[in-house]
Amino acid sequence: MIVLTAIATTAEGKAPAIIEEIKKLTPKVLKDPGCLGYTAHQAVDNPNKIMWYEVYENQDALKYHSQTEHFKAFGMATKGMWAARTEIIFWNKLT
After folding, report:
1. Which residues in 52-78 are b (16+ Cβ under 10 Å) and which e?
2. Among residues 63, 67, 82, 91, which is most buried (max CB within 10 A)?
3. Sign (positive or negative) of CA dihedral 19, 53, 60, 83
4. How open is the CA angle 50-69-36, to the nearest 5 degrees?
5. Is the torsion defined by CA of 21, 24, 26, 28 positive or negative?
6. Residue 50 belongs to a domain with what CATH number?
């Protein structure tokens, strides 16, 4: 199992547009083979901070996700709307 978080900061005023794109993307990702969970969150104290929590069966499922048309379309739709590079962290399950 692969668990990752992705934390990104939107450009000022771009969070609403990005959230709409996330709402379009999420149901498609959840149908991807090997996707066990995919949720996005907005920080309580900073509406420009977005975090994804993603779970995949294995490396092949994660690779599949990154090559889908809907993932690429999300990237194109949100291009130029981010303030900084996304921080991606992979996690090992402890319990």
Report:
1. bebbbeeeebbebbeeeebeeebeeeb
2. 82
3. positive
4. 60
5. negative
6. 3.30.70.100
pTM as predicted: 0.91
**How many structural domains comprise the chain?**
1
CB 51 within 8 A of CB 40: yes
Q: How many CB atoms lie within 10 A of CB 29?
A: 20
- What strands lie across the sheet with 35-42, from one edge to the other? 35-42, 49-56, 2-9, 87-91
Q: pLDDT per residue over 29-45, tens digit each?
A: 999 999 999 999 999 99
Element of type H or E holding 67: helix 59-67
